[in-house]
């Protein structure tokens, strides 16, 4: 009986590790890929799962990944099947969704800024220079924040994977995953102690997108307004981290 229980526990632990690999790939790729927000929900899910299948993850783990709509915004849904949900709970799934959304916002902002083309509009040389400076400054801050967060998350995942060899029971797995989850939330500024900072970065991302939209529409006045709003929040961010 003991041997049978050990085999079952070992199978569950291997399953948990494989599911965590799927989540790891989703989280780390969220800060790099620039998703097309015009895609339908079904197409978005199809592309997401196709990417995971291309990485040769198990289909039953891939099927635990979905996209839902919350307050009009798409959100990642991670719902591991039983008995994996003993370790990766619904609460953990919601936290992973927040990290994914945060990194996606950063990637979307960086993508919007990098695709701005100032030469398409009849701007004065002075305005063009100023807006180019604004765009470059915003892009530097956003990509710096994104790269920093991806590095931090990558470090947490590596620590989690390195420590997995010492996990021999379900309780050990629960504690190891809980510690990693807590560390990820802290390093992505999404835990309780960093709520204001996380919201500030989110506001900056939205300002970047609106800045790019204004420029692409040839509305330089609105673009300058969005830049100033971004810069004000960037200053708040610098003050809060000093």
Automatic annotation (TrEMBL):
<dbReference type="GO" id="GO:0043015">
    <property type="term" value="F:gamma-tubulin binding"/>
</dbReference>
<protein>
    <recommendedName>
        <fullName>Gamma tubulin complex component C-terminal domain-containing protein</fullName>
    </recommendedName>
</protein>
<dbReference type="GO" id="GO:0005874">
    <property type="term" value="C:microtubule"/>
</dbReference>
<dbReference type="Pfam" id="PF04130">
    <property type="entry name" value="GCP_C_terminal"/>
</dbReference>
<comment type="similarity">
    <text>Belongs to the TUBGCP family.</text>
</comment>
<dbReference type="InterPro" id="IPR040457">
    <property type="entry name" value="GCP_C"/>
</dbReference>
<keyword id="KW-0963">Cytoplasm</keyword>
<feature type="domain" description="Gamma tubulin complex component C-terminal">
    <location>
        <begin position="80"/>
        <end position="217"/>
    </location>
</feature>
<dbReference type="InterPro" id="IPR042241">
    <property type="entry name" value="GCP_C_sf"/>
</dbReference>
<keyword id="KW-0206">Cytoskeleton</keyword>
<keyword id="KW-0493">Microtubule</keyword>
């Amino acid at each position: 009986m003991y041997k049978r229980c050990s085999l079952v526990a070992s199978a569950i632990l291997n399953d948990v590790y494989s599911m965590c690999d799927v989540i790891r790939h989703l989280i780390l790729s969220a800060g790099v890929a620039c998703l097309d927000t015009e895609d339908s929900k079904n197409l978005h899910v199809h592309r997401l799962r196709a990417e995971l299948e291309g990485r040769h993850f198990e289909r039953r783990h891939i099927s635990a990944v979905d996209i839902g709509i919350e307050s009009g915004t798409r959100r990642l849904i991670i719902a591991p099947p039983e008995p994996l949900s003993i370790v990766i709970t619904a609460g953990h799934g919601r936290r992973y969704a927040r990290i994914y959304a945060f990194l996606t916002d950063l990637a979307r902002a960086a993508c919007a800024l990098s695709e701005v083309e100032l030469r398409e509009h009849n701007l004065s040389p002075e305005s063009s220079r100023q807006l180019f400076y604004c765009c470059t400054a915003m892009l530097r801050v956003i990509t710096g924040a994104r790269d920093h967060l991806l590095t931090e998350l990558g470090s947490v995942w590596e620590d989690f994977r390195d420590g997995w060899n010492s996990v021999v029971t379900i309780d050990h797995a629960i504690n190891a995953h809980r510690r990693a989850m807590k560390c990820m939330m802290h390093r992505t500024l999404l835990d309780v102690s960093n709520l204001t900072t996380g919201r500030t970065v989110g506001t900056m991302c939205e300002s970047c997108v609106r800045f790019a939209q204004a420029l692409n529409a040839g509305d330089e006045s609105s673009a300058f307004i969005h830049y100033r709003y971004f810069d004000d929040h960037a200053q708040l961010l610098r003050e809060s981290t000093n």
